[in-house]
Amino acid sequence: MPDHTAFINKLRRILPSNGLLSEAAELQPYECDGLSAYRQTPWLVALPENSTQVQAIVRCCHEASVPVVARGAGTGLSGGALPLENGLLLSLARLNEIIDIDADNRLATVQPGVRNLAISQAVAPQGLYYAPDPSSQIACSIGGNVAENAGGVHCLKYGLTVHNIAQLKIITIEGDCLTIGSHGFDTPGYDLLALMTGSEGLLGIITEITVRLLPQPEFAQVILASFDSIEMAGDAVASIISSGIIPAGLEIMDKLAIQAAEDFVHAGYPADAAGLLLCELDGSHSEVAEQMQSVQQLLIDCGATQTTIAASEAERQRFWAGRKAAFPAIGRLSPDYYCMDGTIPRKHLGKVLATISQWSAEYALPVANVFHAGDGNLHPLILYNANKPGELERTEEFGGRILEMCIAAGGTITGEHGVGMEKINQMCSQFNEAELEQFHAVKAAFDPDGLLNPGKAIPTLVRCAEFGQMHVHNGELPFPELERF
Amino acid sequence: MSDQLEQMQAFVSQAYAEKQPIAITGSGSKAFYGGQSSGRKLDTTRHSGILSYEPSELVITARAGTPLAEIETVLREHKQMLAFEPPHFGPAATLGGSIACGFSGPRRATAGAARDFLLGANIINGKGQYCRFGGQVMKNVAGYDLSRLMAGSLGTLGVIMEVSLKVLPIPACELTQQFEISAEGAIRQLQHWANNNYPISASCHVDNILTARFSGGESRVMEGIDKTGGETLKTADDFWLSIREQTHPFFVQTEPLWRISLPPATLSATPTRCLTEWLGGLRWIFSNQDNDKVFNENTMSYSILFRNNNNIKPNMIPDSLMPLHSRIKHAFDPAGILNPGKLTDQY
Q1: What angle, 0 to 180 degrees and rounded to 10, lies between the N-to-C axes of helices A461-471 and A433-446?
Q2: Interchain contact, A246 vs B168, CB within 8 Å
Q3: What is the pLDDT of residue A485?
């Protein structure tokens, strides 16, 4: 550890007078991100106002070997911005300017603290928008979106963050500023833009982002379909995609999620359905009309008990309001909930949900499911009460089993929320020793001393060895009957 | 169809132990690109075969040596395609070679590049370790995105063994229109279309002729070309194939061919005769002039020598990123045995 007073004085000279927090009361709001089950008070919080200050702070930390945890809006759901007791929490929230809108090239250059939705709002007069729309888009910042490779409900058609950014400026742990990517379609050399996206603050500090913009679709329409089982809703999704239509959004909710959402926002959902499918199409008026007719027929052929096409823009918004409010709606049913984020090949949906339901009974913990059905991303929400002794631990164990089942089904432990602190143990199940070693070697290429967000995203081999002893029973995989790839 | 994993892994492990360079080769269709690497030849073509294809999940997985043509045929049977339209540059072009080069064809500007469709890659790294990165699902943020990093790495980070790609439906309708227009006029026109939801899926401008393809539902395509006008090109498939494969008369020259990537709306960046693709974002010129800087700050453009390199050393890495490239290379291939000299003369 460095000489504390000297280090703090050095930072004070770099930052504005209100830019460094070190008192317990000031630090408290930063002790967790969107995953509030994990808390740690940081040693210091720095709130720089520009990239020059960021660069100077990172240089100081590098010299003094102080670990740095970057934080955007703090909406992350995997504990990626969980502070360190001996570390500096680097908040990028004050870097919140839109630097340039280049409508001709359909690009916007912004600072990392700009909110996701604010980009679309700023470019709306030009008829453009930024496509990735995580549920937290009102609050989450674009820097965090890049660090986590955030998704959203329109990913299947419009891609994730990695598909929608053009250039980054990053500060390396040595304090160098690098430009990665370009304002063109590609850059020679390695695809460092892809490597940085989703790297969870372990490789560099992002200080500027150029995002790609799209023209706003002329028209969007949504159809809502009820099914007697979730599996039937999943089959309907397969049937739509096989027909050559790529919907803008495809969401499934289960009975508990439907009821919670309906009680909360009165979206007009049929409360007796076992599975609800929301399918949005966008494009020109004629194109949407053409495809909507096909989709409705496919849904009926797949056994939908009821289909409703939103009759107006207001009704379309209402249908989506139910889905978008699903998390807080489910939150009303229970003091706490734990949101999982596995992805599976969609054909395994029925089996995976049946198993979750069986485990839900075993653990006596209710589960509601919302599902980005187009791309196989499951969000089971486990309802629990943190004040009941042992219930959080049981919830985490249950969640861990769900993630391991996703791996066994040929999927992944995280589709869009990131590994962070939360899924670090399951990384040991998804990757073997050689693969983890490769991740660590890449990390060392950027940050040889391991000062950037240490302990997150990629587990050490020692941690995996310990975790393995606790969790592997009789060398069996958790879901042996599933087909393997 | 055969599995050569064991043999290939043993080959790389031995080369690592002996610090002997390896030259990874597929069919050789793109051997013109990059530097010439010397070393023991590692043939990937026998490691081939489609391993799984789920049309309703939009995912195909195949071994690296699988011919691209075989993959495209199977996809076409289900009315699907590789939306980045990879150039083959030879009849036996392999999947692995296409990903290693990271090339994308005419549809790139609107559909995305090879790297955008790459969901997973299994590789043998420079230490002979077999590693699986990414997977077969659309969304996957576990660990660094090392599979996408393989796209365009020219085999310098690992021997690509198996690849999973997202596929897309073939558009229901495609029509190609031609217009007589200057280079600057074409750039302005293309940005207008792209900003206003015209269903444009490919563009090519050369010698005052703009050729533009429109794709999507039939009604949308018809509405689009009603507004754009232009003359419908009857031999559209042949035309786009000649652009993708560089058999168009423009490309039949022997001088060094330069590939310039820049912001698409840039009006005049090249003084000489130029073929422009990707809504303006990709420009091809022939020039004997060597270019010692990859990045030109004035035009925000990146230029690399693509073909006919006449002994000019490969230089594909911007100076500012060279140290980081060297360290990443070392992380995958500490002995520096994989395709030395292919991407840069530095390693």
Answers
A1: 150
A2: yes
A3: 32
Q: At what angle do helices B322-332 and A433-446 cross, to 10 degrees?
A: 160
SS3 B116: helix
Long-range contacts of A474-483 (CB under 8 A, 24+ apart): A477/A404, A477/A408, A478/A401, A478/A404, A478/A405, A478/A408, A479/A355, A479/A404, A479/A405, A479/A408, A479/A409, A480/A408, A481/A351, A482/A348, A482/A351, A482/A405, A482/A408, A482/A409, A482/A410, A483/A348, A483/A410
When pLDDT is averaged across residues A324-330 and rounded to a whole number, the result is 89
Q: Distance from A19 to chain B by nearest Cα, in Å?
A: 31
Query: Are B146 and A195 in contact (CB < 8 Å)?
Result: yes
Contact B194 A128 (CB under 8 A): no
CB B128, CB B16: distance < 8 Å: yes
Write the single-letter amino acid at A322: G
Would you state the structure tokens that stand for residue A288, as one six-digit string? 């949407």
Q: What is the DSSP letter of A373?
A: G
And the tokens for B200?
A: 């444009």
A484: pLDDT confidence band, cut at 50, 70 and 90? very low
A107, two tokens? 């690009």
Nearest CA in chain B to A152: B139
User: What is the C-alpha separation between A297 and A44, in angstroms, rounded?
Assistant: 59
Position B90 scores a pLDDT of 97
Cβ atoms of A328 and A34 within 8 Å: the answer is no
Q: How far is B183 from chain A (nearest CA, A)?
A: 16
**Can you tell me the distance from the alpha carbon of B143 to that of A420, in angstroms, rounded to the nearest whole number?**
10
Give CA angle at A224 (A220, A229), nearest 5°.
145
Q: Which residues pair with B162 in a beta bridge?
A: B63, B122
d(CA B168, CA B178): 26
End-to-end CA distance of chain A: 47
User: How confident is the model over A311-339, as a mean pLDDT?
Assistant: 92
pLDDT in tens, A87-115: 999 999 999 999 999 999 999 999 999 99
Q: CA of A214 to nearest chain B CA: how many angstroms apart?
A: 7
Which pLDDT band holds residue A466 (cuts at 50, 70, 90)? confident
**What is the pLDDT of chain B when averaged over all its residues?**
95
Tens digit of each residue's pLDDT (9 = 90 or more) over A261-292? 999 999 999 989 999 999 999 999 999 999 99
From B78, B149, B223, residue closest to A191, measured CB to CB: B149
Would the CB atoms of B316 and A431 count as touching at under 8 Å? Answer: no
Q: Say yes or no to pLDDT of A152 above 90.
A: no
Find all residues with CB under 8 Å of B109, minimum gap 6, and list them: A185, B194, B202, B203, B264, B277, B278, B279, B281, B282
List pLDDT tens digits, range B268-309.
766 789 999 999 999 999 998 877 788 988 889 999 999 987
The Cα-based distances of B40 to B11, B19, B21, B159 in angstroms read: 9, 11, 6, 13
Helices A349-363 & A230-242 angle (0-180, nearest 10)? 160
A315 CB neighbour count, 10 Å cutoff: 17
Out of B141, B152, B302, the one facing A191 most closely (by C-beta) is B152
Q: Shortest CB distance from B317 goes to which of A188, A434, A444?
A: A188
CA atoms within 13 A on the CB side of B278: 26
The mean pLDDT of A200-227, rounded to a whole number, is 98
To the nearest 10 degrees (0 to 180), the angle between helices A349-363 and A391-408 is: 160
